[in-house]
Design the sequence.
């Protein structure tokens, strides 16, 4: 009897030692049984999201950027003084001799904008941005009074003005009234003066600046009756409220020289006055070259008599 009992006790002891203890499982550190937080892998940048000059190895196995121990210093906001300085730096861009004489492409100039064709007699016209904004305000005001303003000419650079001038000089295009200068006028000086009644020498036109526009018609007679008369009277009364002034008023004691009267030609004075002030300082008659008849510019005193021969209000 004793041997079977002893064998049974030995079996129980061995069985308890081989079975895991519940107490041992309870004393295991909590970190072992707690669910493990999945470590997030930084997203792999695609080739489309990288610059064209990014090396291929940057796309695979990217190295995470270290987290700075201290926050980066914030960049101070620019002061008002710096802003004013930047605005002042814009003036030389529109008062250089190259700009004033129209030797640039207005289609690529950052200060110019293409005009809405709906407001123009022809497509692909440009003005300075601030000039166009002022024109739109004036046009809207005129429309409320049943006046329609249409731009017939805006910016013309040196090369466009050269084509106009030389076409008249060579007789390819007649003057107003039908005169062909190649047939009627042999003297270069007299030929130039005839063209200068209504057309500028290349380099001397205010249309180079992007500040001047021709409105509705290019004949003074249009503004003497009907819609033209109403439009012109509205402009005389209201245009200055939007910064626009008639440049070439009728000749008389206050304006004895320069182009003939042009009731269609209006300038945005806040900008054109700045440019004109610089033109007066730096332009010389000898600067006007590169076109037929340019040798007459000093004889005519093109700067004093034509560039500056304008409505005194615009000086």
Sequence:
């Amino acid at each position: 009897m004793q041997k079977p009992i002893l064998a049974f006790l030995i079996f129980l002891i061995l069985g308890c030692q081989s079975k895991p203890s519940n107490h041992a499982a309870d004393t295991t550190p909590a970190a072992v049984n707690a669910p493990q937080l999945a470590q997030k892998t930084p997203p792999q940048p695609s080739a489309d999201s990288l610059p064209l000059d990014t090396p291929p190895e940057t796309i695979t196995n990217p190295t995470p950027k270290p987290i700075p121990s201290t926050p980066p210093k914030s960049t101070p906001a620019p002061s008002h003084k710096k802003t004013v300085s930047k605005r002042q730096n814009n003036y030389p861009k529109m008062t250089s001799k190259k700009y004033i004489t129209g030797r640039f492409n207005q289609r690529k100039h950052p200060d110019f904008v293409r005009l809405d064709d709906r407001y123009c007699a022809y497509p692909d016209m440009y003005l300075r941005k601030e000039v166009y904004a002022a024109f739109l305000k004036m046009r809207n005001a005129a429309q409320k009074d049943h006046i329609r303003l249409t731009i017939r000419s805006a910016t013309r650079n040196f090369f466009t003005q050269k084509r106009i001038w030389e076409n008249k000089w060579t007789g390819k295009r007649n003057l107003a009234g039908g005169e062909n200068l190649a047939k009627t006028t042999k003297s270069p000086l007299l030929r130039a003066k005839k063209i200068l009644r209504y057309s500028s020498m290349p380099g001397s036109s205010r249309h180079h600046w992007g500040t001047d526009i021709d409105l509705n018609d290019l004949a003074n007679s249009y503004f003497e009756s009907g819609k033209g008369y109403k439009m012109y009277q509205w402009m005389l009364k209201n245009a200055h409220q939007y910064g626009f002034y008639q440049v070439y008023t009728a000749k008389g004691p206050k304006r004895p020289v320069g182009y003939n009267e042009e009731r269609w030609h209006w300038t945005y004075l806040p900008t054109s006055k700045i440019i004109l002030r610089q033109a007066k300082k730096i332009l010389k008659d000898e600067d006007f070259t590169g076109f037929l008849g340019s040798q007459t510019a000093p004889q005519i005193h093109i700067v004093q008599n034509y560039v500056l021969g304008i409505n005194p209000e615009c000086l």
DSSP finds 13 helices and six strands in the chain.
